[in-house]
Design a protein that fits this description.
The structure holds 2 protein chains of 2 kinds. Helices cover 55% and strands 22% of the residues of chain A. Chain A is built from 7 helices and 10 strands. In chain A, helix 3 packs across helix 5. The longest helix of chain A is centred in the C-terminal third of the chain and has 71 residues. The radius of gyration of chain A is 57 Å and the shape is rod-shaped. In chain A, 27% of the residues are buried. In chain B, the strands form 4 sheets. In chain B, strands 6, 9, 10 and 11 form a 4-stranded antiparallel sheet that branches. Chain B has a 3-stranded antiparallel sheet with strand order 3-2-5, with no helix packed on it. In chain B, strands 1-4 form a two-stranded antiparallel sheet. Among the domains of chain B are: 46 residues, no CATH class; 115 residues, 2-Layer Sandwich (Tetrahydropterin Synthase, Chain A); 68 residues. Chain B is of the alpha+beta class. Chain B is rod-shaped. Chain B is 51% helix and 18% strand. In chain B, helix 2 runs antiparallel to helix 3, helix 6 crosses helix 8 and helix 9 packs across helix 10. Classes of the chains: A alpha+beta, B alpha+beta. Chain B: It is found in: Membrane.
Chain lengths: 283, 358
């Protein structure tokens, strides 16, 4: 009874271990190839799910089937106008043919070395076609498309599919940045000057116009005032003339008397003789 | 226990192959346990089996989605609520959060990346210049700080298609924003064009991420703080103050205008009114004078001579009444004998012989 039990337990343990040698699963994020004595078996990679293999002589290599990242070091590249710039790019790639991949590059490390080589040189070529400012602004897309397509072609034989190469940053060398800052400053200063002088101009216009308006208003008023005064004088003259015309002599006499009264005030010396009209009765 | 077993049976009915996967495994376990000399093993073994079966239960929360793999291969998506999968090693389940919006920061750091902070304050953020500085299409440099909000839109794609989703979003965001800014003008980026840049960047990011089949949805790209680089910020500020100066000059001029014109109009009214007053007074005075003259004339005509004399005498009297008027009466002969001598330089007074005439 007892030896049988022990044997049974041993059998179960061995069977369990054996099972792992025969059965294996491939995850949804992976593809796998079975190697028999180092050579791939079959001509397609295994899809996710449950698979079987021969124990001992066959072993399994798993490959990530997801889109992988390759973030290259920023690189100094010369542009068409002989300026240097730091171009930082990233590459998205995937192992599309694990069998080829395994025979050509073996591992992800090997692939990265290839990617680094090819993408770096393609980027150099593409960026070298354009001037610095073109690279930065409107030629970006052309460069990325060109590098992606060319690298894709070159890396296909390794079982690698280049999904996308994109430029992240394009940093300018310090002296270019300084030049740009200088230009930006100058541009803004010009704008500021323009705003201020335009403001002054508008202000001067308004003030001059206002002064003119004031002058016109006052002159108009003076004119009207003179007209009104003249009218008054005319009316008064007419009224006087009408009244006085009725007795010019009498007016003359009256007005003279009034004039004497007003004129002979203080500091007047009268020398009279009894002959005078006024003293007649004193004789 | 019976019920559990039935449930397991039911689970397996919909599948090809009557024998449940992992059955062998289970049998081996069973055998192992059978031979242990544990007191009461008849009770322990079924208990272990029950536990193993129960380990297939999992809860999918309302904000999650269940993704079940069988032998590593994607099998099905499950909805929120209690769910069941065939226990290890046959099936496994993961429950990514699909409604949670995550947030990434670019050009600045307020908190650790990838955490959505509701109490986000811009004041406590730190700028990261090498990330923020970008070139614009009109050859200017601008500092852009922005955030990207994303969520999982397809759990299956998100889990299985891209190796490092978050790093991918970071790369794509940087690349897309720089591409869009590289097409824009600095003044747009700083002022009115922000909305367009945000939308354009969001769309570009979405397009790139869709091309990777990443299962990620970019909810929003938001520009937090866009400003000119520190080296030139003074010049930019000066432009703003120049604008203000300009409108201040104009405002001051308009204020001057609004000040002097009403004053001038008031002055004008005064001038005209004075003239009118002068006229009215003058006319009235002349009318008064005229009627007075006519009144006197009427009486005068009645007794011309005597009135004339009376008026004459009254006038002379009123003149001579003034004590300051010197009166000198000389006889005619004396006057005739005296030499008329007029010391003009010495005399402060003027002697005027009055010859009142008839």
């Amino acid at each position: 009874m007892k030896p049988i039990t022990i044997a049974l337990i041993a059998l179960i343990v061995v069977a369990t271990l054996g099972l792992t040698q025969v059965v294996f699963t491939v995850d949804q994020t992976e593809r796998a190839i079975v190697l028999e004595l180092g050579r791939p078996v079959g001509d397609v990679a295994l899809e996710p799910g449950l698979h079987f293999k021969l124990p001992v002589v066959q072993n399994v290599v798993f490959f990530d089937s997801r889109i992988l990242d390759f973030d290259a070091r920023p690189e100094e590249i010369t542009t068409a106008d002989k300026k240097y710039m730091n171009v930082d790019s990233y590459t998205k790639w995937r192992i599309y043919d694990p069998l080829t991949f395994y025979t050509k590059v073996r591992s992800v490390q090997g692939a990265q070395a290839r990617l680094d080589d090819i993408i770096r040189s393609q980027l150099r070529v593409a960026v070298g076609r354009y001037t610095l400012i073109e690279v930065v602004s409107h030629k970006r897309l052309e460069i990325m498309t060109a590098v992606t397509e060319r690298s894709r072609e070159l890396l296909r034989p390794y079982g690698i599919e280049v999904v996308d190469v994109r430029i992240k940053r394009t940093d300018l060398p310090p002296e270019n940045a300084r030049a740009i800052y200088g230009r930006m400053k100058a541009e803004r200063e010009r704008q500021a000057r323009q705003y201020r002088s335009e403001g002054r101009e508008a202000s001067a216009r308004i003030i001059a116009e206002a002064d003119k308006q004031r002058a016109i208003i006052l002159a108009d008023a003076e004119k009207e005032a003179e007209i009104v005064r003249g009218d008054g004088d005319a009316q008064a003259t007419a009224i006087y003339a009408e009244a006085l015309g009725k007795a010019p002599d009498f007016y003359d006499f009256m007005r003279s008397l009034e004039a004497y009264r007003k004129s002979f005030g203080d500091n007047t010396r009268f020398i009279m003789t009894p002959e005078s009209q006024f003293l007649r009765h004193m004789r | 226990m019976n019920w559990d077993w039935e449930k397991l049976q039911k689970q397996q009915q919909g599948r090809p192959g009557g024998k449940p996967p992992g059955f062998d495994d289970f049998q081996q376990h069973f055998q192992k346990f059978k031979n242990f000399k544990v007191p009461g093993w008849k009770l322990v073994v079924p208990l272990l089996i029950v536990l193993w079966i129960a380990s297939g239960f999992y809860i999918v929360e309302p904000d999650e989605i269940g993704v079940v793999k069988r032998f590593g291969e994607f099998d099905r998506i499950t909805t929120p609520g209690p769910n069941y999968h065939i226990p290890f090693p046959v099936e496994s389940a993961v429950t990514p959060k699909v409604t949670q919006i995550q947030r990434l920061e670019f050009g600045f750091r307020s908190v650790a990346r990838g955490l959505l902070q509701s109490n986000f304050q811009q004041g406590v953020s730190r700028e990261v210049p090498e990330e923020a500085l970008m070139l614009t299409g009109d050859e200017n440099i601008v500092s852009v700080q922005f955030t990207v909000q994303f969520m999982i839109k397809d759990a299956r794609e998100y889990l299985f298609n891209v190796a490092s989703p978050e790093a991918t979003i970071v790369h794509v965001a940087e690349s897309a924003m720089r591409e869009v800014i590289g097409r824009s003008r600095i003044d747009d980026a700083l002022t009115t064009g922000k909305q367009d840049i945000q939308v354009e960047t969001r769309d570009l990011m979405q397009q790139i991420l869709d091309s990777y089949e990443s299962g990620i949805n970019i909810v929003a790209v938001q520009m937090q703080n866009v400003h000119p680089p520190d080296e030139v910020i003074e010049a930019f500020k000066d432009v703003a103050s120049a604008r203000e100066d300009s409108s201040r000059f104009v405002n001051e001029a308009e204020a001057y205008e609004r000040d002097i014109l009403p004053k001038a109009r008031g002055e004008a009214a005064r001038i005209v009114n004075e003239a009118q007053a002068y006229t009215e007074a003058k006319v009235r005075r002349s009318q008064g004078d005229a009627s007075r003259f006519l009144a006197v004339l009427t009486e005068y005509n009645k007794a011309k001579d005597i009135t004339r004399r009376r008026l004459y005498l009254e006038t002379v009297e009123s003149i001579l009444q003034n004590p300051d008027v010197e009166k000198l009466i000389m006889a005619d002969d004396a006057l005739k004998k005296s030499v008329p001598y007029l010391p003009l330089d010495k005399l402060p007074r003027q002697a005027t012989p009055s010859q009142a005439k008839q």
